[in-house]
Amino acid sequence: MQSFVKAELARTGRRHDAAIVERDVALLRGAGISNLNVDLIAGLPGQTPESWRVSVASAIALGAPHVSVYMLEVDDDSRLGSEILLGGKRYGARDVPSEDRIAEFYEFAVEELAANGILRYEISNFARPGAESAHNLKYWRREPYIGFGSDAHSFDGRKRWQNVETAAEYIAGGSARVEESLPDAGEEKFFVGLRLTEGVAADEADWRRFGPVFDRALAEGVMERAGGRLRLTPRGIMVSNEIFQEFIAT
């Protein structure tokens, strides 16, 4: 969905609007498909506190059991991201809200969704109890998964690999894998697992390796102990990328 405000969608080149999404959701429900996700982006060009409230309220009113809320990230592979990095004004680049305002949008969504029974279980994902994404939980818990098709990624619990990037190469046959890696399980356990609200259970080996990182994060109030697990605090979530980087550098 990204937004329920037509002007915001138009500025980012989206061709749908709220009415189209509402019609499609009704069509899916009429076919017996009720397990739906609605995604919103905080930080679109021209977005205001008032328009963000409209989008959040509309997502709740739609009644989807799962909602994703992403804070806008500058990506040089996108038209808007490239324009922002170049200091240009096309695609509404100069009207993108500040980082502080985007953070306020996100925190407002967290509160409103929770008040309506849609709880955060991962940094960008919220669900009614029992409606969490089983697919994505495998990523954050480092469970095995297989990706089919071009540019798909897979993980067998130890090794990761990526398929060829284009459909033509994939269809041509032969070896589909173009890149394999053996990730550091200790690092991934935390910079992936800490995305989850449930946090991560740290054992003695983890404390020997990452003790200084844990101690610093706990002292700064960006991490907390809860039920024998370590998890990010609400303040820690807002600086999560910086925290995750510490596990990669250790």
Description:
- The protein has 250 residues and is an alpha+beta fold.
- The protein is globular.
- It has helices at 6-11, 18-30, 49-62, 79-85, 99-115, 134-140, 167-171, 185-191, 204-220, 234-238, 240-249, and strands spanning 37-42, 66-71, 119-122, 125-127, 153-155, 160-163, 177-181, 223-226, 229-232.
- It is built from eleven helices and nine strands.
- Helices cover 43% and strands 16% of the residues.
- The longest helix has 17 residues, at 99-115.
- The strands form three sheets. It has a four-stranded mixed sheet, covered by helices on one side. Strands 5-6-7 form a three-stranded antiparallel sheet, with no helix packed on it. It has a two-stranded antiparallel ribbon with strand order 8-9.
Short synopsis of the structure:
With about 250 residues, this protein is α+β, with helices and mostly antiparallel strands.
